[in-house]
Write a structure and sequence with these properties.
heterodimer; A: 152 residues; alpha+beta; OB fold (Dihydrolipoamide Acetyltransferase, E2P); seven-stranded antiparallel sheet; 3 helices; 10 strands; globular; B: 143 residues; mainly alpha; 4 helices; elongated
């Protein structure tokens, strides 16, 4: 595949265009990679003090615990220096929706919503973890999904 | 202010449902109520109280909704039966008062709870369909 990179100082917003005639495996893979991209976030492992850049698309959910914000990936947890609202403002478009007061969940990493007999709604994530969808945020969450479908 | 509006709106709807249930039950049973004015007054007071109890669910956001629904039913029913018991000490009440009030509250409550339960599962089903759609389309705008 031919790759062109353009430096355009006058550009309002950086963007990537993908041109194809047939949606083959290579193009699909690139499309999938790009769909999970949305900027980078500096994350720090609190145990090892190791740092790494996180892509919003690989984050399953964000949680605030004792005023510290953590990004949960499939198999690791990273502390990030964002508040929930600030994160939402910057990376919300990558698919994050609020599921309770202290959490944001990435809808692209949700396997399914599970109804409970006691009328609670659990969110089953890609890594098998179950997260509660709080009743207060339920309507907002459903509206977000509808809006997302309408936009796609 | 919105909560007061919502409350007033709900009282109107619940009172209408209860009044219709009463009229329907009388129609089916072939009996007419000799104390219409007083009973409708009592029904209105019960409606205001019951709706107030139902509105309390906003406080129990962390409690599973099913338990809240059952708890609210027990509180409403308990208070209504207690009210009838207290009233019976001062005025003469119908021999079927307890049964009538039990049915008049239980039937609409079960119907409304059932509707809510069905809507709850429908909502989740729709949300799951939306989720699948979103994941299928990816986070990219097709041109």
């Amino acid at each position: 595949m031919k790759i062109n990179v353009y430096h355009e100082p006058g550009l309002e917003e950086n963007h990537v265009d993908l041109h194809y005639n047939v949606l083959d495996e290579e193009t699909t893979a690139i499309k999938q990679y790009l769909s999970t991209f949305g900027g980078v976030i500096a994350g720090r492992d609190e145990e090892t003090e190791r740092e790494r850049m996180l892509i919003p698309g690989e984050i399953l959910y964000i949680e605030v615990v004792e005023r510290k914000t953590y990004a949960y990936l499939k198999d690791s947890v990273w502390r990030i220096s964002y508040g929930l609202q600030q994160f939402m403002d910057e990376f919300g478009c990558a698919g994050f929706a609020r599921n309770n007061k202290s959490m944001l969940v990435n809808v692209y990493h949700i396997q399914e919503l599970k109804a409970q007999v006691n009328m609670r709604v659990n969110i089953l994530m890609d890594n098998g973890e179950l997260i509660v969808l709080n009743r207060s945020y339920k309507n907002e969450f459903y509206k977000y999904l509808e809006k997302r479908v309408a936009e796609s | 202010m919105k909560i007061v509006k919502d409350y007033a709106y709900s009282v109107c709807v619940v009172f209408t449902v209860l009044a219709l249930t009463k009229v329907l039950m009388e129609g089916i049973g072939g009996k007419s109520d000799p104390h219409y004015i007083m009973n409708f007054g009592v029904l209105f007071i019960i409606t205001c109280f019951a709706t107030f109890v139902l509105f309390m669910h906003r406080i129990f956001k962390k409690t599973p909704l099913l338990f809240v629904i059952i708890g609210q039913y027990v509180v409403v029913m308990g208070m209504v039966l207690l009210g009838i018991f207290v009233t019976s000490k001062f005025v003469e009440i119908s021999s079927n008062a307890y049964r009538d009030m039990f049915l008049q509250i239980t039937i609409p409550y079960i119907v409304l709870a059932g509707v809510y339960y069905i809507l709850y599962f429908k909502e989740i089903k729709k949300a799951n369909l939306n989720l699948n759609e979103i994941k299928k389309m990816g986070n990219i705008k097709e041109v």
